[in-house]
């Protein structure tokens, strides 16, 4: 079999191109004067320029979906920036109120280290097969890129939902469960007391008595909360949060003229209804104070908001051994319970 000199020359050029790429040298020049790329497969050229263009396109889809994703977390939570591995929420140990200045000022001392929260890592990662780049089949990843952006846009809601779903079993600033029957309070004269922001009554709109025992009891509890010196906090609940199973009852309580027994509804317009499909309990409900500008019942501690990341180095083991590039989102954040006085929760068991 005769092998032409032209064919041998092309083979030599291909080998030289691959060696030049591996050694990070300029690629050889073809007889027509053009530079030869080592990765041409009849589809796209798999080189740095192509990969940059591919992942910039996916990044654009990701960022557009991220910005467009609506969230409900703002209704009951606030975001605070974090500048380190974690943050100390000593300031949560005091709920400052104005008092008469008699004698020396009463200084509220912060207890450092009492409530420290470490940031957590979050991620969503997708693989891109090199064959799909070569064959120009990147459209199949567009939906995934938008989905990753939507998921990243939901991060704050995910963090707040985790706080709410764990509020009956996770501790807050005072070492008690966020919703608990015995939050300790101590006045300036040293007298200790125990206060509850947890109920067990099922949410009901059946009769006035049933409403007063559930929703009404929650309102009374919040409006009776005081600070550590026994001064009223002057709180008025404004948001009733429920799972989908309790939406109909909640809307009767807050929006209807009459209760289910056709009696007048004295609680109409006393709160907004927030239906949260991410709540894991079908019976639990929560009543919040969200009108405060300084603090909300729940806190999102944000160290690094979601950002698009990609692994496009063709020399990595994943690419060499598995033909896989990766892209997705990364973030660093965590959730923190705010003042328990700003919320009452019921597990709805009785």
Could you characterize the architecture of this molecule?
With 350 residues, the protein is of the alpha/beta class. The chain is 28% helix and 21% strand. The chain has nine helices and 13 strands. It has a five-stranded mixed beta sheet with strand order 7-13-10-8-9, covered by helices on one side. Helix 2 crosses helix 4. The longest helix is centred in the first third of the chain and has 21 residues. It is elongated and about 70 Å long. The N terminus is likely disordered.
Distance between the termini: 91 Å
Measured on Cα atoms, how large is the radius of gyration? 30 Å
Mean pLDDT: 81
Give the strand line-up of the largest sheet.
Answer: 7-13-10-8-9
Tally of DSSP β-strands: 13
Supply the number of helical segments: 9
What is the element string, with H for helices and E for strands? HHEEEEHHHEEEHHEHEEEHEE
- Biggest sheet architecture: 5 strands, mixed
- Contiguous runs where pLDDT drops below 50 for at least 5 residues: 1-31, 34-42, 105-113
Tell me the β content. Answer: 15-25%
Chain oligomer state = single chain
**Helix content range of the residues, please?**
25-40%
Structural class label? alpha/beta
**Gross morphology:** elongated
Structural topology:
Blueprint: H1 5-22, H2 48-68, E1 77-81, E2 86-88, E3 116-118, E4 120-129, H3 130-134, H4 142-153, H5 155-165, E5 183-186, E6 192-195, E7 198-199, H6 208-213, H7 215-223, E8 239-242, H8 247-255, E9 272-275, E10 285-288, E11 298-311, H9 317-322, E12 324-337, E13 343-346
Parallel strand pairs: 1-11, 7-13, 8-9
Antiparallel strand pairs: 2-3, 4-12, 5-6, 8-10, 10-13, 11-12
Helix pairs in contact: 2-4
């Amino acid at each position: 079999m005769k092998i032409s000199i032209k064919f041998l020359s092309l083979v030599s050029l291909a080998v030289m191109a691959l060696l030049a790429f591996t050694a990070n040298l300029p690629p050889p020049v073809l007889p027509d004067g053009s530079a030869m790329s080592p990765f041409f497969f009849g589809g796209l050229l798999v080189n740095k320029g192509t990969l940059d263009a591919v992942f910039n396109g996916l990044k654009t889809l990701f960022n557009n979906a991220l910005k467009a994703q609506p969230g409900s977390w703002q209704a009951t939570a606030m975001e605070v920036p974090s500048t380190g591995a974690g943050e100390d929420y000593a300031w949560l140990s005091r709920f400052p109120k104005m008092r008469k200045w008699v004698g020396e000022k009463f200084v509220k001392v912060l207890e450092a280290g009492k409530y420290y929260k470490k940031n957590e890592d979050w991620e969503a990662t997708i693989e891109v097969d090199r064959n799909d780049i070569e064959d120009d089949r990147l459209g199949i990843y567009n939906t995934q890129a938008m989905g990753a952006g939507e998921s990243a846009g939901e991060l704050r809601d995910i963090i707040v939902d985790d706080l709410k779903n764990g509020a009956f079993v996770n501790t807050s600033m005072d070492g008690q469960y966020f919703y608990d029957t015995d939050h300790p309070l101590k006045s300036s004269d040293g007298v200790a007391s125990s206060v509850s922001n947890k109920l067990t009554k099922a949410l009901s709109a059946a009769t006035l008595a049933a409403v007063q025992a559930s929703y009404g009891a929650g309102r009374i509890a919040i409006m009776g909360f005081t600070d550590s010196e026994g001064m009223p906090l002057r709180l008025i609940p404004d948001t009733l949060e429920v799972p989908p199973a309790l939406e109909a009852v909640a809307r009767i309580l807050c929006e209807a003229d009459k209760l289910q027994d056709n009696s007048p509804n004295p609680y109409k317009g006393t709160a907004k209804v927030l239906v949260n499909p991410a709540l894991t309990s079908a019976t639990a409900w929560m009543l919040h104070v969200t009108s405060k500008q300084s603090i909300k019942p729940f806190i999102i501690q944000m160290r690094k908001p979601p950002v698009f990341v990609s692994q496009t180095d063709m020399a990595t083991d994943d690419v060499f051994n598995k033909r896989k590039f990766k892209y997705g989102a990364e973030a660093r954040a965590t959730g923190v319970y705010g003042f328990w006085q700003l919320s009452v929760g019921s597990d709805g068991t009785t």
